[in-house]
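Predicting holo structure, flavin-adenine dinucleotide bound.
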Amino acid sequence: MSGGVLVVGGSVGGIRTARALRNEGYVGRVTVVEAESELPYDKPPLSKIPLDGDAHVPLLTAEETRELDIELVMGRTAVELRPQDRQVVLDDGVVLGYDELVIATGAAARPSPWTGPGVHVLRTIADARALRASLRAASRLLVVGAGFIGAEVASLARKQGIEVTIVDPAPIPMARVVGDGLGRHFSQLHRAHGVDTRFGTMVDTIEHGEGGITAQLSDGSCVLVDAVVVGIGAVLNTRWLESSGLALEDGVECDEYGRVAGAENIFAVGDIARWYQPRQGKAARVEHWTNAVEQANCLARNIVAPDTPVAHDPVAYVWSDQYDWKIHLFGTRDVTGDPVVVEQSEPFRLAAIWQAADGRASGGLTVNWPKASVQLRRTIAAGGPAGQVHAQLVDAAAKA
Ligand SMILES: Cc1cc2nc3c(=O)[nH]c(=O)nc-3n(C[C@H](O)[C@H](O)[C@H](O)COP(=O)(O)OP(=O)(O)OC[C@H]3O[C@@H](n4cnc5c(N)ncnc54)[C@H](O)[C@@H]3O)c2cc1C
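Done. Tokens:
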């Protein structure tokens, strides 16, 4: 094959790029190579859809593939990029040529240090199906790592009445995302839902026995469970690019238009891409869904109209569903500083605003407060003052 846009990686970044190319009027060939054999699916539902539901939420159906004239090469892994020849080599030896290449190979779950029946990571639909099968038969779950995915799985399991223990080496795990004060709220959220939190503790060993799986913790205690989920981060899928000569330090380095540094006709999108962010004055990688979608739209536009490229300068955004909290996070947060917080009980809702040295709102967090989310996101995007949006939210809270 030669010509057209070749997208490597068929998850949200890659599929949204392929779709956006057609929306932008691109009439050339669009091919997506994807290592998994499943039709493309979305990842956030994997940790959110209840255990009796189907976690496979399609990104592209077979019918849409035909309608949009997108060629899907499923179950094939790219093993080498030859930029000088504009070629990608697949694991079956097939060589694909391209006019433009989009790198969208994202990340994989950081491998669990422990293995065996009932021990899981969660990144793919196969992981989700295996975890869900274990949970349906489990009454006790150990979650290793209290980040977003660990917290969401704990929440899912509690909804099924499963006893949950969470272990994390940090004394206040979410402090790394929202600072100490708000981080304590997140720790308390787990406890309020009956989770046994062992924070500031590590798992030393995991052993399978007749009564279940025993985890020996660094504080000398043991936990006996039926299933374990290990949510300790992700590793980037860059191996296939190692001989390409591309700059690969913490992802694929790109300018603000998504063009890969030092390469011609190569773009990168999503978790793997480290785009220059004018708002922050530096390149940064963002491992969140909305970022992948926004970059995909921007890339497609820049491939179709290369002479008038548009920059993507996002206000970072991520959501998470944990127990009865709908959480939204925006922008950049100085976790060593104290945000101003507007909080209400009955029903509980919260908004927190971080401000930059010049008084602009730089970051925000909301819980169960959609209107505050919209206001905060707009204010941060416009570089508006933190004091003003704080006053508006205090006012809204008083009127509620
Ligand atoms: C369980 C879970 C829950 C999440 N929840 C949220 C949430 O609530 N909110 C939020 O903002 N974000 C969430 N995320 C993060 C979000 O899903 C990711 O940011 C997003 O999936 C990134 O998309 P991507 O296309 O860049 O990469 P990925 O989703 O990692 O996809 C990369 C694709 O490339 C394929 N691939 C890899 N290497 C090769 C190769 N060599 N050849 C061919 N194909 C290859 C992979 O099989 C994969 O399909 C969640 C992630 C997970 C795992």
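The longest helix spans residues 175-192.
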